[in-house]
Amino acid sequence: MAGVTAVTEELAVSVRGLSRSFGGRVVLSGVDLAIGPGEFVALLGRSGTGKTTLLRILDGLDPGYEGDALVPQRRAVVFQEPRLMPWQRVLPNVALGLRPGAGGQAALRQRSLAALSEVGLANLAHAWPVTLSGGEAQRVALARALVREPQLMLLDEPFGALDALTRTRMHALLQDLCARHRPAVLLVTHDVDEAIGLADRVLVLVNGRITLDAAVRLGRPRDRGDRGFIALRTTLLGELGVAGDGSGPRN
Amino acid sequence: MAEIFVAGPVSAADVKTAGTDGPVTTAADVTARTDPAGAGAGAGGLGAVGAGTGGITLIQPGQRRRPRRSRVRVPRLVRRVIGPLAVLGLWQLVCSQGVFNSVEVASPVAVVDAGRQLWAQGVLQSNLLISLERVAEGLGFGVAAGVALAVLCGLFWLGEDLLDPVIQAARAVPILGLVPLVIIWFGVGEAPKVFLIALGCLFPVYINTYAAIRGVDLKLVEAGQTFGLNRWGLVRKVILPGALPGFLVGLRFALVGSWIVDVVAEEINAQSGLGYLINQAQTTDRTDIMFLCLAIYAVLGVLADTLVRLLERTLLAWRRGFEGA
Questions:
Q1: Is A19 exposed, middle or buried (0-12, 13-18, 19+ CB in 10 A)?
Q2: How far are the Cα atoms of B49, B149, B224 from residue B154, in angstroms, in the given order?
Q3: Is the Cβ–Cβ distance between A72 and A19 less than 8 Å?
Q4: How confident is the model at residue A167 (pLDDT cuts 50, 70, 90)?
């Protein structure tokens, strides 16, 4: 029952022989995973393959695993739902759990406002979460993650509940933010195009094991019509057990 | 990209523009454009298959078929006062018609007279004040204890296992059944009354707050954990705010309960208070004083309810629920 401890290493995530079972049902069996500093890794898998379980272990929310899992101290999560505290306005939601440092409350406030500006929502600092649209709420969640200056960002299907147009804009925003702050990112998703479009490396999780580890050697911004894009998509869909018809899976 | 005709907020003029406004869709994939006439013909054809009904009646969604008659808006407060006033009027009418004799049912006018009389003697103020004091003290102790126990049981398994069965068992005991015992314990001073009122407030606050703490969304608790809230931070920023709506429901029950217990405690065993006044009035057949005290209870109840509503409005501003039509 080891907790998630952090040690200095040349890696942002170091996972070896990680297993997790729930009452005899094996969800993860012997997962190895290494993510370098600043590396963007997408983890693909069909529902029920253990993606979220892996992420929860790295979040520190699930201590009941076996094997080794090392993550940085400074890490932040964006869940599928925004999970904002409905009884706090947007700004205190962004600063949730942060202790005021040397600059005191005012400095913390400035930092939170800056993070909100980065996602384009400084004008909504005093809004109640219930009044936000789905995309806005998720951007606040992104700002809440950013303000922690994470060395590792864990994204659990963060765009899964958004409409296609909003999702496209969020992809652009995320790429922009990652280029500026360079955290290591582990993005869990079931959208093959999203994975190829954003990540440096795509992993496929099947039945609790990582069965494919493919580097994405495509320039940015990436074009879905690009030959390399299509070839990788076909490979990934094949690995996921979906017939590659070239259109990618739909939610 | 086919043209879509919405039956509803699109007015006839809009449809016409949409039909003639060709350049909007220039993409090559548009193969056919449905025009209103064509749609009409299609509907006719379907009509033949159906029961021969002519066409489909289209309405504007979300609008009344008949336009609302414009009328003078009566202010909300006035509308809320109409009901109680009507009851008072009817009451007075029945009394002045002699349906009951004045000893059985005092008329509103007689009740007001009694009120003036008692006020002039200073009896009303002093007894009202002592009742208010008892209720305030009992409410304070009861609510505080209820919240404390709810937090202990809601947050800690140990607390729940040790305390909850005891509280549930105690809750099943009728509070008023304790009156003789409490008199033996505390005598006849203020303590037994305050104790009984506190007990009456404790249970509703405990039950509702405890359930609300256990009902706080686990996803929010997890989010709080991953964002670095420690145990106390979780309690302060996630669990207690999340349980606040439930606590306020409990507070409402407690406010009502406190007065019920107060009246009974004062009627059985007191030399002062509104309950004592009612009891005295019974021995002298003064129904006007009885009604007066009951009316005061009613007014106090309304005031307490208004207070909690105000509290809810400020404390739960983050919640945007259905607010009625």
A1: middle
A2: 64, 8, 17
A3: no
A4: very high
What residue type is B132 in one-letter code? L
A6 touches B at CB < 8 Å: no
- Ramachandran class of A217: left when φ > 0, alpha when ψ lies in -120 to 50, beta otherwise: beta
pLDDT tens-digit map of B135-167: 999 999 999 999 999 999 999 999 899 999 999
Q: Is the pLDDT of residue B42 over 60?
A: no
Report chain B residues whose CB lies below 8 A from the CB of A81. Answer: 219
Which residues on B lie below 8 Å from A97 (Cβ)?
A: 224, 227-229, 233, 237
pLDDT at A185 over 80: yes
* 8 A C-beta contact, residue B319 and residue B244: no
| CA atoms of B166 and B179, how far apart (whole Å) | 20
pLDDT mean over B104-130 = 93
- Whether residue B170 contacts residue B270, with contact meaning beta carbons closer than 8 Å, is answered with no
Percent helix, strand and coil across chain B, each to the nearest 5 = 70, 0, 30
B68 C-beta neighbours (distance < 10 Å), count: 7
Q: Cβ contacts of residue A235 below 8 Å, gap of 6+?
A: A212, A214, A244
User: Cβ(B152)–Cβ(B163) under 8 Å?
Assistant: yes
Q: What is the DSSP string of B204-266?
A: HHHHHHHHHHHTS-HHHHHHHHHTT--HHHHIIIIIHHHHHHHHHHHHHHHHHHHHHHHHHHH
Given a cut of 50, is residue B1 above it in pLDDT?
A: no
What's the token pair of residue A156?
Answer: 């659990």
Contact check, Cβ <8 Å, A130/B222? no
* Six-digit token string for A192: 């093959």
Q: What is the ipTM of this complex?
A: 0.86
- pLDDT at residue A121 above 90? yes
